[in-house]
Amino acid sequence: MTFTHRHLLGIEHLRPEEIVTVLDLAEEYVDLNRAAQKHSDALAGLTQINMFFENSTRTQASFELAGKRLGADVMNMAMQASSITKGETLIDTAMTLNAMHPDLLVVRHPHSGAVDLLAQKVNCAVLNAGDGRHEHPTQALLDALTIRRAKGRLHRLNIAICGDIAHSRVARSNIILLGKMENRIRLIGPPTLMPAGIAEFGVEVYDDMAKGLEDVDVVMMLRLQRERMDGGFIPSEREYYHRFGLDADKLANAKPDAIVMHPGPMNRGVEIDGTLADDINRSVIQDQVEMGVAVRMAAMDLLARNLRSVQGAA
Ligand code: NCD
Fold first, then answer.
1. d(CA 206, CA 218)
2. Which of 7, 44, 158, 223 pairs with 215 at a CA distance of 20 to 30 A?
3. pLDDT band at residue 124, thresholds of 50, 70 and 90?
4. H/E/C letters for each residue in 161-223?
5. pLDDT tens-digit profile of 234-283?
6. Which residues pair with 74 in a beta bridge?
7. What's the 109 CA to ligand 1 centre distance in angstroms?
8. Which residues contact 284 (CB under 8 A, 6 or more apart)?
9. Ligand 1 pocket, 137 CB below 6 A?
10. What is the helix (H) or strand (E) element at residue 266, kind and residue range?
């Protein structure tokens, strides 16, 4: 089996064949999730704890459902963001949980690197459900599965990632994954929302939607992450929508069969036109949600197999 990791902390650590292993297994779970009987015993007897130090609706629900469908005992901990902003406290929390013998720990945290740190302190498998602006590996994997199913392949595609790149862990994980799979990546957004040193990622950068979208196969929109902004990054939402919001007119620059993606939650009328987001002929936003459950099932299944083989060898 070509997936030997103990944790899933970032796309950064995965080889292309490991990415394919996750996606291939996820395909099987897509079928299971569409069946009337949605249960498997892949995680039977294992304990999964979801620790979300940041608000989340879809990611937490997706991980919870994924664990339950695989037969794990799943616990959600509601973490108060205010009480955990110190590194020390995070480690204390981790040690407390560790003493309860979980097998899988799913963690979202507002600080980049916090999940990696936690993984060093516990004995179980840790899955990063988003850490600061750093990585959100299961989001990039579910996006990859959505693209592969819609386009029939995951290489040599022109892919535009648009909007608030600077604050986005979704963008970062996607840039790494799609780059590893040899796609051509364009980033489109205002210069104030481009991260420093972006040229090193081997991407093309545009600040004009019409030019940047020319001939692309995939248009990935990002939420304007106002909670991560501490100053005037954009003149106004109206102006932002006018220049960078995706609508049918701007999309007309892309290939006629280009798909539209968004990780959610969406700001309709800010980064994307609501009608376009709902257009099932162009938008795959609901497919992304569906693929999310399947990809998380695959990721947890693979990590659990590795856990068992380590335990078996001990
Ligand atoms: C993303 C996240 O939390 O990073 N959402 C998600 O996981 N579905 C993107 C976002 O919040 O805009």
1. 16
2. 223
3. very high
4. EECCCCCCHHHHHHHHHHHHCCCEEEEECCHHHCCCCHHHHCCEEECCHHHHCCCCCEEEECC
5. 778 999 999 999 999 999 999 999 999 999 999 999 999 999 999 999 99
6. 48
7. 12
8. 146, 150, 259, 260, 261
9. no
10. none
